[in-house]
Amino acid sequence: MTKIEKIVLSYSGGLDTSIILKWLQETYGCEVVTFTADLGQGEELEPARAHAEMAGVKDIRIVDLREEFVSDFVFPMLRANALYEGQYLLGSSIARPLIAKHLVGMAREVGADAVAHGATGKGNDQIRFELAVNALDPSIKVIAPWRQWNIRSRLQLSEYAEKHRIPVPSDKRGEAPFSIDANLLHTSTEGKSLENPAEVAPDHVYQRTVDPVDAPDTPEIITVGFERGDPVSVNGKAMTPAALLTELNGLGGRHGVGRLDLVENRFIGMKSRGIYETPGGTILLAAHRGIESITLDRAAAHLKDEIMPRYAELIYNGFWFAPEREMLQALIDHSQAFVSGEVTLRLYKGSASVISRASPCSLYSADLVTFEESTIAFDHHDAEGFIRLNGLRLRSWAARNGR
Ligand code: ARG
Q1: Which residues are annotated as catalytic?
Q2: From atom 5 of ligand 1, which residue's Cα is the shortest distance away?
Q3: What is the DSSP string of 245-308?
Q4: Nearest residue to 80 via CA among 284, 353, 251
């Protein structure tokens, strides 16, 4: 085994990373610095400090990354209307490059030669962490204990914890918890009974949205203001990116907006089933498309839609810090110069529907499109020629086919 001098561990304070902390200290016999990021997971972070202290960690770092997460990662992704496989808003995928960036920064600051993470060998997250570290500082080594040790299941993990007197958490029902990843953008739940995609997910997997059936019977009307492609206000009130997403999570959650039960294709090669809750993100996607609908040129909008699946796949597969993602981002950002204005949405029983939109930079012309008389010169005969020429090759083709 290569000699390691000092490790920065991405540490949540939960069971997996507490065991990893112990295992790193024993296996490498070197100092481990813990790094805990507040991404708005809604959990208290002080217990993480207490656990790290108990494990003898001298250098414990807890950093609030909520604003950076939303302004520099979630919002740029939202500008693209990114969805993986048509449905997934990429809540876990987009958090990994941010965590990796800070792991690398901290490793440099404290003079560590390695970083470590608690992602397993079957998932996407290990790829995202490590590709990001590769792109940011190739001199830093990555330690992934789940791929090295001989613990092979969650059961063996609990046994290791008991042996080393590490407290094993359980959910409110006293059962082993699901595999959960939460931040300001989403909560993702995998594992246990969800591993059978033929089985309906139990109600208690949902953490931050009510069942649409139980949502209020009266719809709620909200407005979201945009400037140059980014949301800046809710109901007329200007907010910081993290405050805005937090506000929309509350509103959406109450109306059961943003639930998704999905079987997706992981980069590593297998299919997996997960439950996602993305209340604020779902509202923002609808609202952003709403404001784009009046401010983007048709060809610009369609080009964005063409590259979107590619862009989303890059983020899903862990290529946030790759040149091709940055190139696509430049294209997307350029398109947003006039994407400003206000969108009104109705939240009702699980849906977030755009009901009106307005912009000082609108391309929409009622005078041009109207069924009534118009002041704008539009020669209806032009349409005749337009169709005649577009139909030219269709007429040849049909004649040849003998229709
Ligand atoms: N499948 C999702 C993704 O790859 C979520 C992964 C992390 N979630 C979890 N519950 N462990 O982005």
Answers
A1: 16, 96, 125, 179
A2: 92
A3: HHHHHHHHHHTTTTEEEEEEE-TTS-EEEEEEE-HHHHHHHHHHHHHHHHHS-HHHHHHHHHHH
A4: 284
Domains of the chain (ranges, CATH numbers): 6-67+91-177 (3.40.50.620), 186-296+338-358 (3.90.1260.10)
In the reported structure, the alpha carbon of residue 41 is separated from the centroid of ligand 1 by a whole-number distance in angstroms of 14
Atom of ligand 1 nearest to the CA of 178: 10
| Helical H segments across 5-58, by residue range | 15-28, 46-54
Spacing, Cα 105 to ligand 1 middle (Å)? 24
Ligand 1 atom at minimum distance from 272 CA: 1
Ligand 1 centroid from CA 401, angstroms? 52
Find the residues whose C-beta lies inside 6 A of ligand 1. 92-93, 124-125, 179-181, 188-190, 272, 274
| Ordered per-residue pLDDT tens for the chain, 403 residues | 789 999 999 999 888 899 999 999 999 999 999 999 999 998 889 889 999 999 999 999 999 999 999 999 999 999 999 999 999 999 999 999 999 999 999 999 999 999 999 999 999 999 999 999 999 999 999 999 999 998 888 788 888 988 988 877 777 677 778 999 999 999 999 999 999 999 999 999 999 999 999 999 999 999 999 999 999 999 999 999 999 999 999 999 999 999 999 999 999 999 999 999 999 999 999 999 999 999 999 999 999 999 999 999 999 999 999 999 999 999 999 999 999 999 999 999 999 999 999 999 999 999 999 998 888 888 899 999 999 999 999 999 999 998 6
